[in-house]
Amino acid sequence: MVQKNLIDGEWIAGSEAFRNINPSDTNDVVGEYARASADDARAAIAAAKAAFPAWSRSGILERHAILRKTADEILARKDELGRLLSREEGKTLAEGIGETVRAGQIFDFFAGECLRLAGEVLPSARPNIGVEITREPVGVVGIITPWNFPIAIPAWKIAPALCYGNTVVFKPAELVPGSSWAIVDILHRAGLPKGVLNLVMGKGSVVGQAMLDSPDVHAITFTGSTGTGKRVALASVEHNRKYQLEMGGKNPFVVLDDADLGVAVEAAVNSAFFSTGQRCTASSRLIVTEGIHDRFVAAMGERMKGLTIDDALKAGTQIGPVVDQSQLNQDTDYIAIGKQEGAKLAFGGELLKRDTPGFYLQPALFTEATNAMRISREEIFGPVASVIRVRDYDEALAVANDTPFGLSSGIATTSLKHATHFKRNAEAGMVMVNLPTAGVDFHVPFGGRKGSSHGSREQGRYAAEFYTTVKTAYTLA
Ligand code: NDP
């Protein structure tokens, strides 16, 4: 059965369908999905525009109930939905279920936020005048998501958009439509009025572009690559619309001489290789001071030898496959580039054969890398990391900040002085002390600086900044 797009409350088949393939076993077709056209995208935008006046004035209890019901169903079906996610994206079952739980928690959080909407009442600077400051929804919000978090990223954009009274046109990455289809189906059955949430699965260059080109999309929230992010920005300036971008990272993880070696190695392996290194918060630059360098590299090699890379759904798998052939080619190209640049491939980097045909890659660790090499400057987005040797903390901090990106930044140290200094001086939106650079909470702000992000933060109460617009009203008493 072909899973359809949702436009104006109706499931629409479209003229074409595409297949969702399991990266752990390319013979396994996860499902077939209707491919939306540019006209479908325009119909979805028109439906969202028509639904906006009523939804923007809907009662908070109605919104609360729909988001709450959605959270409950996602959490009740976490094993099934987590399995679907791992089957289509390739992260391990534990990671797939964990991400699904997080999506449920996000809907639960924003169900609560509906009940906490508030404004401010202030005295005017002039006598006998009152001032009210309120937040209003922005309008039609376009949501464009990447393939690497197939349920969490859609959840952290859709939930606040609906909570604050916006209507939505949602385009998930074509590589992973299954999880997105599932949450739209849940929201639809939870009672959303027609046109409030529209799903258009299909190519970014067609469906996404139609969203960018429409004057009726009042805000776009985008997560994905830097290149596409720039297109979103340019088109949004053209239409004078609000936009929010979460893009790539080249996140540093600093290991100081005084670090607990066990803590440092666990955090580095998690940062660099879990979820197959396909996280925008993954660390691919391990910046290590001289005194611990050789012990750290030896311990990383030992730990990496013990990692189980296999079918994402198999019990015991710690690292699943790369998401598809083109991402695998990108990873192996960067491994070749690293060698040409003079870094030493100390461990891994080979293609692996498993029981089923899939995109299996042994995580790769380079040593003798410098921060000027392409493997240290460009986002690889796979299980490939480099060790950069530095003299001391000051050099480590300088190297950590010497990057066009600024999403997450980590340090392993037992020194309060260095931990405190690093938290203050790391040029990143998120800082981790003795923790992996990836792995964040659902109820606090998420986002970066420099080339990684643009606009206000996502998640938690800070999400209100993007999904609402502020009004200041004056009344003569
Ligand atoms: P892409 O930029 O290729 O795709 C992201 C989304 O944009 C997809 O839905 C894609 O559609 C769509 N898209 C592509 N072209 C256009 C267009 N012309 N107009 C509108 N939309 C378009 O990124 P990936 O999916 O390949 O994701 C990987 C990248 O995302 C990495 O660089 C990673 O760092 C970054 N990322 C950043 C995160 C963050 O929060 N900072 C989180 C997760 C990922 P389709 O693919 O269906 O064609």
Task: Please characterize this protein's 3D structure.
The protein is an alpha/beta fold. It folds into 2 domains: 2-247 and 452-476, Aldehyde Dehydrogenase, Chain A, domain 1, CATH 3.40.605.10; 251-433, Aldehyde Dehydrogenase, Chain A, domain 2 (3-Layer(aba) Sandwich). Helices cover 40% and strands 23% of the residues. It is built from 15 helices and 21 strands. Strands 15-16-17-14-13-18-19 form a 7-stranded mixed beta sheet, sandwiched between helices. Helix 4 (93-114) packs parallel to helix 5 and helix 9 packs across helix 10. The model has no long low-confidence stretch (mean pLDDT 97). NADPH dihydro-nicotinamide-adenine-dinucleotide phosphate (NDP) binds next to helix 7 and helix 8. NADPH dihydro-nicotinamide-adenine-dinucleotide phosphate is lined by residues 144-148, 171, 173-174, 203-205, 208-209, 212, 223-225, 228, 231, 246-249, 280, 379, 381, 407, 452.
Q: Key terms for this structure?
A:
Aldehyde Dehydrogenase, Chain A, domain 2; binds NADPH dihydro-nicotinamide-adenine-dinucleotide phosphate; 2 domains; alpha/beta; seven-stranded mixed β-sheet; 477 residues; six-stranded mixed β-sheet; globular; Aldehyde Dehydrogenase, Chain A, domain 1
